[in-house]
User: Which sequence fits this backbone?
């Protein structure tokens, strides 16, 4: 059973377009993280959201944690080719292991 | 060390051979994870170590897979009698294991079984 479902699974867009990636679960998490992975490397943390309803901005990336702490979204404004990669959400329930989402593969075409 | 170190970075082996993959976590991190990733796919959880607790082995795909963590630090993932479907990148990550549980990943070990 996959606790964290991401959508879409694949996304190919033109440079300059906006996009949103969703991460949904029926479970409540104490925090949720977003990672980005580039080819040949391990995933790297982008952000951690902790409070229900929290919104965090990282340059052109906006992250939101749902009010009930069960879901999250990642919005990218004016996507750049450097945004290309695999985006992973991960839920943390304290002293239990972190659970990763199914992943969203983003390709930004110049 | 400054980051999570994995070795070897690449391993090519013949079907039926045993392989060992090593992970050196960040000093002081009590939690250690192993994941498997097939080309372009998401992360498949394998095993989780947290301090002195019994490891969570629920993700190991078969009894050919095993892992140990010695002295709460270095971990070794062993695959016995490798099969072609074992070909993948094996990623290790570590964290402090509490609070906002942020994982730091190694660069992975790419395993190719011929």
Assistant:
């Amino acid at each position: 059973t996959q606790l964290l479902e991401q959508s879409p699974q694949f996304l190919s867009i033109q440079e300059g377009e906006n996009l949103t990636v969703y991460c949904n679960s029926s479970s409540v998490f104490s925090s949720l993280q977003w990672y980005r992975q580039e080819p040949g490397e391990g995933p790297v943390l982008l952000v951690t959201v902790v409070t229900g309803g929290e919104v965090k901005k990282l340059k052109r990336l906006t992250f939101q944690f749902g009010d009930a702490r069960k879901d999250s979204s990642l919005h990218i404004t004016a996507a750049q080719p450097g945004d290309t990669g695999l985006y992973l959400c991960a839920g943390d329930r304290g002293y239990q292991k972190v659970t990763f989402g199914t992943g969203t593969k983003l390709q930004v075409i110049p | 060390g400054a980051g999570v170190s994995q070795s070897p970075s690449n391993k090519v082996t013949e079907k039926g051979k045993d392989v060992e993959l090593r992970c050196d976590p960040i000093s002081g991190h009590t939690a250690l994870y192993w994941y498997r990733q097939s080309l372009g796919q998401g992360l498949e959880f394998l095993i989780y170590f947290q301090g002195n607790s019994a490891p969570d082995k629920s993700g190991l795909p078969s009894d050919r897979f095993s892992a140990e963590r010695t002295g709460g630090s270095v971990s070794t993932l062993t695959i016995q009698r490798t099969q072609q479907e074992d070909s993948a990148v094996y990623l290790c990550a570590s964290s402090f294991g509490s609070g906002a549980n942020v994982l730091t990943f190694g660069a992975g070990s790419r395993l190719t079984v011929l």
In short: The interface with chain B takes residues 31, 33, 35, 40-45, 48, 50, 86, 88, 90, 92, 94-95, 97-103, 105 of chain A (CB under 8 Å). The radius of gyration of chain A is 13 Å. The mean pLDDT of chain A is 93. The CA atoms of residues 36 and 87 of chain A lie 5 Å apart.
